[in-house]
Amino acid sequence: MMRQLYEKLQKGGKARAASAGWILYWGITLGLLLFEKERIIGTTEEEKRIYLPVFAVLVILCFGGWLLTMARFARMPEKKRKPRLVNIKMLLPVLLNAVYLFFEIEYIGNTEFFQMKWYYMLLNVAVIFLFCIFLTGIFNSLKRAMIFLNIFYYLMSLVFYYVYLFRGEAFQLIDLYSIGTAMEVVGGYQFEITRQMVLMLVGTLILLSLWKQSGDWVIIRKGRLPKILLRVITALLIGVFYLLYMYLNWNAQFGVISDLWNPAKTYRQYGTTVGFMAVAKYMRLTPPEGYSVSEVERIIENSEEKNAGDEEDSGINSEDPEQEEKVTPVNIIAVMNESWFDYRTIGDPQTSESYMPFLDSLTDNIIKGYTLTCTKGGGTAKTEYEFLTGNSCKRFPGMVPYVSYFTHNQYSLVTTLKDQGYQAIAMHPNKATNWKRTTAYRFLDFDDFIAIDEFPSDAERYRNMVSDKANYEEIIRVFEAKEEGTPLFLFDITMQNHSGYTNQYFQADVNCEGYDSDEADQYFSLLKLSDQAIEYLITYFEQVEEPTMIVMFGDHSPKLPDAFETWIAGAPYDRLSIAEQEKFYGTPFFIWTNYEMESQENVWTSTNFLSTYMLSLTGLELTPYNEYLLDLQEEIPALNHLGYMDSAGKWHRWENADNRTLELEREYECLQYNELMDSNNRVDEFFRIKAEDGNSG
To answer: Is it the case that residue 602 has pLDDT exceeding 60?
Structure first.
């Protein structure tokens, strides 16, 4: 063999380059194994007993692979061999490769892999095998199809692993629409490398070598037209497969139940490939049960009759002194504070010092409490959508309306205030394109959007993110630039506290003494900086003569380690009661004014109600939809995807809800669907201030 190889290398540079390439390939593979030896073998006796033989086998395979490559290279004929036609015998290595790909993606990211039922394992392998067949038809090359699929599956294994690690939510098909947003914040995270990743990378490199050296197997050997026809037929088969996938209830037939608010659970139980497909099937927003335009009109009529009756019973009229006592603020500033959360609602963080001393000290002209969100650890734009529109993301499992459903103008807090003379400005110290906000804000009718490129280049930053104080300085700049007396609505999203609390250059000065965690220390230190920035903002507007209202709320809890959350709650999240679980979704909020307002504390609401609640404290006109939401809030003070709080303050899961509550929720979903999706039949006057009541043109 060596003589043949030597003679072949003597013949030309092409052969030498190929040989050098293979030597480098196997050298890198073997070098990777040796470099990661300690990570693979582990440190405990139990780990060594299991993984030392695995390591030895991989070393032998790599060395044997190099010898085999050189032997095949030496025997390779001078002329390129013609590709052979795919036959049934080739299905066996394809099937074995499908088994490997299934094992790879589960081994890297599925912590419950070895508890999965065997028939779900077979279902995943069958689906991957089908992908192999389709790709072979597209490429007209079994070799190229398998090389592509092996690389693709390894990369996707990493994507599934890291998305869940960083966000606490599984990667879904809809996330492809938000890839730009993800790339913007990815630098704030620390990428760990696991034993599973290294082992599967080496295994993939070995497989790629085998497929690369195999003969080419094709379906059509000659003729351009037959090859084009093959691809057309394959595309048609994929289309048929897609229709069957979308419109047949295959998941129920196989016993696959999609947990749309916890896709990771679906992936773990049924396998990542099958689980991903089962969840992706529900990307389309379907009408709620019983939806029709006539049903929407009936719900609206009942709501308006109820409100008219309430006004008559209470004797409310335009000259009511209580109505006149409500101040109409000239400036309304809404701040959605990134990852702003208070773990004191769950347990005792035992920090070295208070991280919200200023907010705790505020007692005058302030309403404080907690607002229930539909997302945990990430998903900022869902909470933002709820606040601005009054709609709930309960209807959108795993989806972000900005990204998925915004195709036309939307009614919102923005239109309500603009109809009454307010200038509407959005602000966010990050890219305008994140979560497709450029498009979303246009559909929401904001007058201007101040993004990161309009912030001062020397704006204060922590962990390379604009600080809350610098953010509020920009709010003040916008306020001071407006004409005195001009009504202003400014909606701001902060960035300072975004998840990824492992920055080695950030000095934490608040320590979580009850739990040893650098991430927790960094997070609580950031909260303290947020509190100082709130003090700066409030202190400034205390001196402003124009009536000003500031509402601030957190978008979601931070993504801290699961072990920390288990410690703070006293038990793993899955074992908590509904009341305890909901606390992880309740972010702080406050409504503060620089004029007299009755103060309240420990108020519970949900973000879909928050903007309507805020409006009800002012002398501004409310839309009929706002009036409807106020009535709904009396019966269901707070709600999200997990459950709801009843009027007595008790928490319930939706599956245990009474018929009255379920009917109220169904009617609410009908109204939301009409506003968001049914643009041709939308009852516009229900979602907007009437022209004769407000200042709309």
So the answer is: yes
